[in-house]
Amino acid sequence: MSATVAQPTHTLPDSIGLDAFLERAADDPLPLADRHRLVAAARVLLEELYVHLPLKRAMHATDPVQRLRLLERRLRPLSEPQFHAELAGVFQELRDLHTGYQLPDPYRGHVATLGFLVERYVDPDGRPHHIVSKIDRSLAHAGFDVGAELETWNGVPIERAIERNAAAQAGSNPDARLARGLESLTLRSLRTGPPPDERWVLLTYRTRAGRRRETRLPWRVRAAEWRAGRAQDPVPTLATSLGIDAGNEATRQIKRALFAPPQARRPSPRAFRGVVAYRTLRLRGRSYGYLRIFSFNVSGARLFAEQLARMVARAPAEGLIVDIRGNPGGHVPAAESALQILSGHPVVPVSFSLPTTRAALTLARSNPGFRVWSSSIRAAVETGEVHSQGFPLTDPEAVTAGLPRYTGPKVLITDALSYSAADVFAAGFQDNGLGPVLGTAWRTGAGGANVWTHELLRVWLPELLGELPRGAGFRVALRRATRARGNVDVPLEDLGVRTDELHELTERDVTGRNQDLLAAAAALLS
């Protein structure tokens, strides 16, 4: 049966075509000297400050430093897109979303999108289905709407298309790569990776009525966040306590702008809109609190803890469901203060350690906040340790002093996109015995570090690091995170948090309001 071809009649609002965007980017290419500066800066960061380099060399059989040496020799013939793709590819092989090349203007602050999301569920017979779960209303046409099931992507069966896309993602475990392969089908941060090769996609789909059709949708480019009339990164560049996937925070902002209903943002104060939300649910004949933490990308831990304390104070005694799916991380002290709000006893936070390199020792000597790591880095000359002694970044009990706590039963919901500070939160939830962890994948995203930008490191290491051209940048995992209590010294990087129970998403979860997932969480509480 041949498919009926359909096309949207409207254009995604507040966006420009990918072709037009790339033409603007090509008008002013980077000079060769600037390319050399970027590659040289990348070598310094990876050799001297990247805390996971020994782990990545062993676990992923990669040698990024040698790749950079070779790239330095081969810069001249590369086109502008080839150069950015090659430099980004060096970091992609690390499978570390904390550590990467950030493309210069005009890529900064922009995201390529098709205007809809694809989600996967498994039917009772174990067969996977991939359906449109959200779509901007301007693009709905000819049955291509929420609930439409995708069959092929540019002529490739959808399951295989996702596998191929997942292989190109930097997720550090199979669950994370699959989740990011699925999301990046329709959303890609241009700051943290090259733009799509194709200018449009050709889709074969079945409508909810069962009719088979085709459509062609163009890639469009939108700004993740505007400040002073200019597209900006939604993640601060000079924060010292961040653990975040900056690319996924940018795509999260686009998802919020395109798909989040306005009423979902009203209950929270302005500073926390789109970050945290609370409501009371009626499940299995009982009332439960439902706390949704979309991100830990906040400016401070105390204000965030105060907001959470006010929210969970309304939670019924029967239990609280805490959901951090898709949370890209953010402020590590905020994540750990949230744990303390949910605990009746002092929580033990994760520990962080530095690489034992000369640059790390210089940083520890020059920055008062790093002095505690100095002695173990110095001792590494004799001990041969590749990591310093571990210390926490904050004292969650001190941050939350005087705030009420929720001590009723709790369950945590995670997925393979829960990353970085969200990994820290999930690890602390499990290690401190706050309740069971229910995952839609077996492991969280596995980002275990405190990430610093090149711009921030230059403040403390000006003789080692120079200025970068045209707003280009790097982020690097500087301090690695290791777990507490029964998992002492177990790293989060590449391993993540293994859930206690697995719930594979159902059709009702994807097309509705997560009814089966929430019922499974309630069953664990009751």
Question: What can you see in these coordinates?
Answer:
The chain is an alpha+beta fold and 526 residues long. The strands form seven sheets. A six-stranded mixed β-sheet has the order 16-17-18-21-22-25, with helices on both faces. Helix 9 (301-312) runs parallel beside helix 10 and helix 10 packs parallel to helix 14 (421-431). 33% of the residues lie in helices and 21% in strands. The longest helix is centred in the N-terminal third of the chain and has 18 residues, at 32-49. It is built from 17 helices and 25 strands. It has a domain at 270-350 and 394-448 and 492-525: 2-enoyl-CoA Hydratase, Chain A, domain 1, CATH 3.90.226.
In a nutshell, what does this entry contain?
The chain is α+β, with helices and mostly antiparallel strands.
Q: Indicate the radius of gyration in whole angstroms.
A: 23 Å
Question: Structural class, judged by helices and strands?
Answer: alpha+beta
Q: Beta-strand percentage?
A: 15-25%
Largest sheet: 6 strands, mixed
Report the CATH C-level class of the domain at 270-350 and 394-448 and 492-525.
Alpha Beta
Q: How would the global form be characterised?
A: globular
Distance between the termini: 50 Å
**Total number of strands:** 25
Helix count, DSSP H or I runs of 4 or more residues? 17
Query: What is the CATH superfamily classification of the domain at 270-350 and 394-448 and 492-525?
Result: 2-enoyl-CoA Hydratase, Chain A, domain 1
Q: Estimate the mean pLDDT confidence.
A: 93
Protein name: Peptidase S41
Pfam families: Peptidase_S41
Domain Tail specific protease: 247-504
Organism: Streptomyces spirodelae
